[in-house]
From TrEMBL, chains A, B, C:
Keywords: Calcium, Disulfide bond, Membrane, Metal-binding, Signal, Transmembrane, Transmembrane helix. This is Pentraxin family member. GO terms for cellular component: extracellular region. InterPro entries: ConA-like_dom_sf (IPR013320), Pentaxin_CS (IPR030476), Pentraxin_domain (IPR051005), PTX_dom (IPR001759). It comes from the Eukaryota. It comes from Esox lucius (Northern pike).
Length: 242, 242, 242
């Protein structure tokens, strides 16, 4: 949950010169900030930019041989328009772990490279929230996506590989250097919430439970309940009741 | 529920010179008319025309500053083929409130204009029934679609505007005058059921309940249980058990 | 359930020179073969070929005037790429009963012909399992698809027709003769499971129950629990826990 005080100052700052979508969302969060109900926080990227992004501070180094990464996404950028970066973990040298929605509507994961990713033909992203998870395990190289709790075909990718520490995780932009060299035509536009990451592979049953709002172990790399984020540029965090 | 007597006369009339789809549906309704089970009525537009439409008689004037409009839709007209009118409220002067599925698959709402609508990238319509709702509120201008109970991103549209009374509501055609000037290439082909409309914004939880078949307050503009309709041209109302 | 002994020999044979997807799945099944948990078997067609197919041995002749055919499908072959054969029942003379995903993403059923099928605009197949059923009844000619338990619009097709016995049922290829003349560009690539077929039309409620994993009468033409299959070429049967 984002602290109310910080939110209110964000809101005031943003009330000048913001987009219609943004102002709407802030009206919503102002209204809701006065209640005691359980709240859900969501990142809003209202327009395409090459400057706006959110850095996520992991609870531990991304020195990992397996992972589960989940998030909820909604976007107006339909298939056929352009590619969209969904998650970027970049070190000085490499795109260590990137997840993309390609312009043809497929999804792709890249490890330690921006070439030779592994591609999946999933249902299309749209303006309704999609619950997306991605699992990968070094020992077998097994990779799979989950959409709204249902698993994709599994594919082999980078068996024996290990994700290296020392980089930065951002949402909203694809960095071609550590935290820079962004391209507006790859930026994310829309809403992101429920970003969670584990350094192990959750079972299919757990990911179905997560999608259904049931209890699963909290993410030990990112836990959306307690996550530490740095917002940069035209991106805002709003809360609404569940 | 449509009255059995009227249905039977409809059916007999339509058994001459009707389309294969139509005849099938009538066979179904004849069979079902003899039972006591709870029935659901559905409008069938079997072919594209510039003459077939259904006028809906509202329970109160459409002089409204907010609304929720819901309907279930199924169509064989895939994205990429052509635009489809989903709902039209037309006064002498204006398209007061129109809802479209555009040819690129997006959805668009227009108020008091056929230009400058607000567009949403929703899941595609297809031959499986889609439960679609649209909410709008003048005070904030907030608009949102719901597909099968799940909300889209919200957008601002026509803040402070008011829908004016004195028009006519039709399904199946886009009127460029009060009840005329139809275009076959904009007509609806497929099935429409569960058309309900309220003069206020239902909560996300209520729209989820409506999609799940749970109780919500009945529409005070249109209530599909008791709605008064006038069928024109090659369109029929059939009933089947729930 | 495939017999464990046969599976293990399959697995050993396939560990030499197999595709990455295949090897992954075998690792999974080796692991699972040692448990006592309830298992689900799935056919995997890892790559496009004009040689790999699975023949299904029906419990009774396909001399039928109505049917329900169900299966679960997952594929990476997106719409726009090419057509895919989903089910083929071929006699010496005819394609008695074929089901296709066309290249434009629509689905088509053909009876006793490879022309003049009946077409449906359904949600797209993708790498997430889709539960697909198709019903047809000679008396009315009524045909309908069901996707994940939800019914399509109904259409009339081949009223009064009867499916003739004496042919062979295969998955994976479109035979232009009894069991031959395959075309690599029509082959199925992906996973198929839960193939069941009845010589009557299941109700909408039953098909919804089947999709929800509830009890329905077992298929009397094909019953996936006890089905007898012959695997040919690069196709494998693996089991995983439910």
């Amino acid at each position: 949950m984002c602290p109310p005080v910080q939110m209110e100052s964000n809101e005031r700052a943003l009330l000048n010169g913001m987009s219609p979508l943004l102002s709407l969302l802030i009206i919503g969060s102002l209204h809701l900030a006065s209640t005691e109900r359980p709240m859900k926080k969501t990142l809003v990227f209202p327009v395409a930019t090459d400057t706006s992004y959110v850095e996520l501070m992991p609870q531990k180094d991304l020195s990992i041989a397996s992972f589960t990464l989940c998030m909820q996404l909604a976007t107006e950028l339909a298939k056929g328009k352009r590619e969209i970066i969904l998650f970027a973990y970049r070190t000085e040298q490499f795109d260590e772990l990137n997840v993309w929605r390609e312009s043809d509507g497929t999804y792709q994961m890249f490890m330690q490279s921006s070439k030779n990713g592994v591609s999946f033909n999933l249902p299309e992203l749209n303006t309704i929230q999609t619950h997306l998870c991605l699992t990968w395990e070094s020992q077998t190289g097994m990779a799979a996506f989950y959409v709204n709790g249902k698993r994709s075909l599994r594919k082999l990718y980078k068996m024996g590989h290990r994700v290296l520490p020392g980089g930065r995780v951002i949402l909203g932009q694809d960095p071609d250097s550590l935290l820079g060299n962004f391209d507006i035509n790859q930026s994310f536009v829309g809403e992101i919430t429920d970003v969670n990451m584990w350094d192990y592979v959750l079972s299919t049953a757990m990911i179905r439970d997560l999608n259904d709002g049931k209890w699963v172990p909290r993410g030990n790399i990112f836990d959306w309940e307690t996550i530490n984020m740095k917002l940069n540029g035209n991106v805002t965090l709003f809360s609404e009741d569940l």
